[in-house]
Amino acid sequence: MPVNYQTPAPEALHPVAGIRLGVAAAGIRKKDRKDLTVIAIDAGASVAGVFTQNRFCAAPVQVCRAHLAEHGNADIRALVINTGIANAGTGESGMAASNTTCAELAALLQVDASQILPFSTGVILEPLPVDRLVAGLPAALADLAPNHWHAAAHAIMTTDTIAKAASRQLSINGKNVTITGISKGAGMIKPNMATMLGFMGTDAGIAPALLAKTLKDIADESFNAITVDGDTSTNDSFVAIATGQSGVQFSTGQEAGWSELSAALLAVAQELAQAIVRDGEGATKFMTIAVSGGQTREECRAVGYAIGHSPLVKTAFFASDPNLGRILAAIGYAGIADLDVDNIRVWLASQSGETLVAEQGGRAAAYTEDQGAAIMADAEITIRIDLARGAAQATVWTCDFSYDYVKINADYRS
Fold this sequence. Notes:
Blueprint: E1 19-24, E2 36-41, E3 46-51, H1 59-71, E4 78-85, H2 91-109, E5 116-123, H3 130-142, H4 149-155, E6 164-172, E7 175-184, E8 197-202, E9 205-206, H5 208-220, E10 237-242, E11 249-250, H6 258-278, E12 286-294, H7 297-309, H8 311-318, H9 325-332, E13 345-350, E14 353-359, E15 362-363, H10 369-376, E16 380-386, E17 392-399, H11 403-410
Parallel strand pairs: 4-5, 8-10, 9-11, 12-16
Antiparallel strand pairs: 1-2, 2-4, 3-10, 6-7, 7-8, 12-17, 13-14, 13-16, 14-15
Helix pairs in contact: 1-2, 2-3, 7-9
């Protein structure tokens, strides 16, 4: 079960004016499962995306990049998402399948194929049954409705145990603005400019160039700050849609109300990203790694990821075993060549309290393993590190490794 996370109720996911969602069972990989989603977008919206940096990126990722570039992050009219088959490692036939998907949906919507963005998630190195996908499109279109975010959150799941969604409403310049998003992911999570799949919509108007820059910044502080297992997917995609139908418009980011909107967009993205970690395959602990005192944000993040990726650290936290020298080892191999380990301090904290674990190159004088074990027994734990070499800081969110992680991944294709 996810660590302290529940899917919001359908009524808590506010409709976004200018966006409709529909789902269908297309039989992509399993029968009688909702595995196809269409997100229809009214004309006039801005759409931006960030995608995996994996060189083996999936065919739909390549098509999305091309279509967004062609339209300058504008004039996109629909997203189409299938689960079950990732359409990655599929060569020319995979590209043909993604292009066919776009062409068939475009014909139904009476738009151009380049105005469609395709997304796939699931098993890699298997062909996408595009005939089944295309056959399911009319049912997905018939299901389109503004309040189907909850259904779409379920339809994009793969190994997820729970659907992930978030929503906010706020007043900006006297007008009500809505932000709603969904995400999926539980394994193969170490995003590099995106998450496995994430979609966020707002009825604020955001100019295409500003939306693209903002999405990159938001991704860096949310989906690019999580890891489950250190594996960057071939299909990672995070897309934002700004319809402008609230009547609030931002062109440069210098306008009144922009700071409030950008903060709310980040909050929704962070909630969606953290939900992925909370639902990490087999996870029993949610861990925040807060690194401060670095010379640069990049070296703080490197330390955070070294700890968050370490199977030895993650299995120790699963067992609530205060074998915390593993944290020091990870800090030491994070790649900071001139790091003075005698200056570093490390704390553990949870609802049970906080304790200084290490200082001056070794165990803190007052620390006991009973203190560490008590904190590690809680479901939410913070590892706090002060590098004592500057003013930069960064946060990484991760989870533990349990027996179930191996079981889930051993059985994934069955």
